[in-house]
Amino acid sequence: MTFQKIVWKMAKYHYKKYLFYFLCNSAAVLFIFVFMTLYLNEYIVSVKQIEGLVYVLSIPGAALIMFTIFFISYAHQIFMKKRRSEFGLFMTLGMTNRDIAKLLLLENSVIGLVALIVGLGSGVIISRLIFWLLLKSVDITDFAFQLNVNMFTYTVGAFFIVFIISIGQSLYMTMSRNIIDNVKTEKITENTAHKHPAIGGIGVAIVVGSIVGLYVTYTDSDGGEYLLLWALGTFLGLYIALNQLTSFLIGLIKKNKHFYYRKLLYLTSLDYKYKQFTTIMTIVTIMIMVTLLYSTIVYHLYKETEKEVVEQNPYDIGYISTDSKNNLSAEELDRIFAEYGNPIREHLTFPIYFHFQEDYDGYTYQLALMPLSVFNEFSDNPYLVQPNELIYHLNHEVTGEIESLYYRNDLRFSSNGEEVIYETTQVIAEKHFNYLGDLFILHDADLADYKENINGMDATLHLIHVENWQESEAAVLALEHAFHDYNAKTPLLDVDHVPLEEELFYIDSRVDGYESTMNANGISFFVTIFFSILFFIGSFLLLYIQLFSEVDKEEQRIQKLYRIGITSKEVRKLISQEITTLFMLPTLLGLIIALLYIIAMAQDIGGIVENPLMLVRFFMLAGIYFVILTVFMNFARKKMFRDLVDFK
Amino acid sequence: MSVLEARNIVKVYGKAEAEGATTALNGIQLSVTKGEFLAIMGPSGSGKTTLLNILSGIDKPTSGEVLLGGVMLHDMDANSLAQFRRKQLGFVFQDFNLLDSLTVKENIMLPMILEKKSVSEMEEKVQELAGLFEIEDILHKYPYHISGGQQQRTAVSRALVNDPQIIYADEPTGNLDSKSSTTIMECLEKVVKELSTTVLLVTHDVFAASYCQRIVFIRDGAIHSSLEKKSERTKFLDEVMEHLTLLGGN
């Protein structure tokens, strides 16, 4: 029998170690690939450029990359810890460093290659499945699962880099250690350096400080700039706190001897495990926190689409007409809407004067002006404007104090060699009209003057309410067609710098706004849920590996306990308590931090008290998360019972 | 008065009638009286450890019965047996069997903790045993920070903590140097003399066996002979050596 044959025989005997390592690597490849199928999906790529999707993708994307790197190197470390003692044995029998390096490279290459194939294969299936499930549940059109070469090359590249670094590190460690250290690898205890409750206190202080910081700064649209910074602070603090947590708590519990002794096995075992798995617990906590935080925010946005659209479009339909454009009679309008079973409930019209200017860059912008008498008819409170003054109507809401955003938008023009100025004396920041952007409200006489001096276009703003806006899509489309046909028959407008007709005479409707917002929010929702699923599986995998990588040691411990007379029932209880803590502690911590983040981040939309539905949605998602986690936890518990108790 | 009684113990691995079945124990009869210090000796593969496992209820005999303090061991279900073991029996193992995550003090207390004894009772008992075996100074250390001899004395203390009827010691000196072996055997001797606890030792270490009052020799799963100490230890040691030579070496 050759030495190679002995090595092969040993490998066959320890196939579980290889299987575990292989499965971890396959899972890592699967993860990267599933992420790539989303990130490099052509539609997502195009949406990323225009929507705020980069924001949705950035933090979870970075977290996922960190997770994958950690996952591969962690699986490798576990594998190598077991292998290194065997290498030590081979070395005592005369195997050289070169032989060890060859063996290590060979077995890792084979495992890596097969894991890559299996990971990619299962990645295609899993990704397709997730896409299928999510697209079924989210109402998004023109978005589909697709595969392209980049997805495969990026996955292979990313996996290859992390894998090679891990192997390099192991090679270095195996070669640089002496034989005895290698043989004893499994017996080397991992202790935490710098153990002091004060350090844990600092960690907690950093977590609290970063959340308070976020709460204080996240008050306007600029708050997001510091989000990543505060999040990094929280993660760092969390790591430090978790690192010291159990030692600190056990120190406290020890003061109550009765309780401490009653829970001795559970507490000491937890302390030992925590020392070893602080990094994993931190990562799992972060993943749970990010998952819950993002899914709540995006789910909330998704669900608030209707409210948002109603706020953005005070009327169901808005458009402008002139004598020659969009000028359908009231009867014709009634007929179109009646035909679709959605009759007009209210139809308001306002005269508006438009004129168009070109700036230095050749960009055309429009000014819309309304006489004060017309606006006062519409408004509940009559406004007063003196000659040569104007009201600047923002036609959208502004958070914060309006004085701080006082827009000085005086109008000026020359008349008979004299400069005429209309000075802004009031600002109205409310959404009143569909279709329009900013609006200048002038004294009636001033507007007449203005029209005489400035070439522009007299138009009518139409604001319509129908019976049921949610069902108005077909009627709006029919109206669009009717306008199109009408406008095609009439001559082009003769106004200075007038933009293209379709830029002026479109219909601004709630139903279209709803559709497009729903689509945009739907994609964010889709992406976030996609991440949540990945993160969920990832955190479960980490916890699972954490438990089962040390199952040999656990078995020895249980054996020892059996020998001194512990009952199976007591062992079950012990295992159950430990597993529950390992699963639930990061979940609870992640949940609490996510909740605090949501409270802090709700500051820019008026605080959490103003948005109680956000809390309701958070607890709903957290509940779902909890239920699924409990199912997974029970699975892990049963497996642990099978491995450690039932075989007795 | 007999504390342990083994009646016609047979242990066969594999199906009795089938080919390849191995008879590990074949009709062992044994009676141990209260306060006795007994050693079971025999060559490797003679069935020593199998016998110990059966006598302690860890393993079941193919036939025969074991009575411990008048209780039939193998009539009990697994849970009652486990509870019986931790209340009535103490164990000392070759590999010490201490939990690394617990301090010496906590390791000693563990059987009492499982029994939900009060804190004061546990503390008192630990102090008493630590004093007896001179390990007071290391009570707050962890097993990997103390010597093999100290670990074994911790294990002996743990075995005694619930005032068991009998202590089973399986090669307790197997992992120790001669100095530590002496200390441990003196400890076990103390257990018998000062606490009147019965000790049953399984060993192939002649030196360790010489501390016992009686030695039962087994060979090929059956009791071959026995020796009783009638003289001082060193003389008894010579007798045991002589007996082993007659037996065919160890």
From TrEMBL, chain A:
Residues 63-171 form the ABC3 transporter permease C-terminal domain. This is FtsX-like permease family protein. The chain crosses the membrane at residues 20-40, 52-75, 110-134, 154-175, 196-216, 228-253, 274-302, 523-545, 582-602, 614-635. It is a multi-pass membrane protein. Belongs to the ABC-4 integral membrane protein family. It comes from Oceanobacillus luteolus. Pfam families: FtsX (PF02687). InterPro entries: ABC-4_Integral_Memb_Prot, ABC3_permease_C, ABC_permease_BceB-typ. The keyword Lyase does not apply. PANTHER family: ABC TRANSPORTER PERMEASE (PTHR46795:SF3), ABC TRANSPORTER PERMEASE-RELATED-RELATED (PTHR46795). Keywords: Cell membrane, Membrane, Transmembrane, Transmembrane helix, Transport. It is found in: Cell membrane. The keyword Metal-binding does not apply.
From TrEMBL, chain B:
Keywords: ATP-binding, Nucleotide-binding, Transport. Signal peptide: none annotated. Residues 4-245 form the ABC transporter domain. InterPro entries: AAA+_ATPase (IPR003593), ABC_transporter-like_ATP-bd (IPR003439), MacB-like_ATP-bd (IPR017911), P-loop_NTPase (IPR027417). The keyword Nucleus does not apply. It holds the Pfam family ABC_tran. PANTHER family: ALPHA-D-RIBOSE 1-METHYLPHOSPHONATE 5-TRIPHOSPHATE SYNTHASE SUBUNIT PHNL, LIPOPROTEIN-RELEASING SYSTEM ATP-BINDING PROTEIN LOLD. This is ABC transporter ATP-binding protein. It comes from Oceanobacillus luteolus. The lineage of its organism: Bacteria, Bacillati, Bacillota, Bacilli, Bacillales.
